Amino acid sequence: MKHTSLILGTVLVLFGVGCQNASNPTINIKTNTTIKATEVAVAKFYDGKDGYSVSIPSGNSSVCTWTYAGGNAAVPYIETTSAKSATEKHTVYSYDSYDWRVSCVDDFGNQYVGVFPSE
């Protein structure tokens, strides 16, 4: 009877350690990783306001993240646009902002970086 309790206790302790390790998995993070992105042209337009647009050439849908600086203290801003179809453009209005950058990803995981027209 003592041996059975000892064995059962050992099994429960080992099971508890195994469960604790399963709930706290180790994640290896690789640093200095380069992600390849395709360059896409950003168009400048005027429709009553200055704006920029970009089309993503692949995928069924896509998301773009636009970053820019504005204001007296060059405050950084971020804006996200979504396209629900392959033919829909991503559009933002430039206002009085500068230092624009845009990066996009389609639903297949392809990544894109926008190239803005030179002033």
- Backbone shape: globular
Strand tally: 8
- Given as residue ranges, the uncertain stretches (5+ residues, pLDDT < 50) are 8-15, 17-21
End-to-end CA span: 86 Å
Strand content: 35-45%
Number of helices: 1
| CA gyration radius, whole angstroms | 25 Å
> Mean of residue pLDDT?
80
Largest sheet: 5 strands, mixed
What is the helix/strand order? HEEEEEEEE
Structural class based on helices, strands and sheet pairing:
alpha+beta
Describe the structure.
This protein has 119 residues and is an alpha+beta fold. The protein has one helix at 2-23; strands spanning 38-41, 43-46, 50-54, 62-70, 75-83, 90-93, 98-106, 111-115. It has a 5-stranded mixed sheet with strand order 1-8-7-4-5, with no helix packed on it. β4 and β5 (75-83) form a beta hairpin. The longest helix has 22 residues, at 2-23. The model is unreliable at 8-15 and 17-21 (pLDDT under 50).
List keywords for this structure.
alpha+beta; five-stranded mixed beta sheet; three-stranded antiparallel beta sheet; 1 helix; 8 strands; 18% helix; globular
Summary of the model, kept short:
By secondary structure, the chain is an alpha+beta fold. It is 18% helix and 41% strand. It has one helix at residues 2-23; strands at residues 38-41, 43-46, 50-54, 62-70, 75-83, 90-93, 98-106, 111-115.
List the helices and strands and how they pair.
Layout: H1 2-23, E1 38-41, E2 43-46, E3 50-54, E4 62-70, E5 75-83, E6 90-93, E7 98-106, E8 111-115
Parallel strand pairs: 1-8
Antiparallel strand pairs: 2-3, 3-6, 4-5, 4-7, 7-8
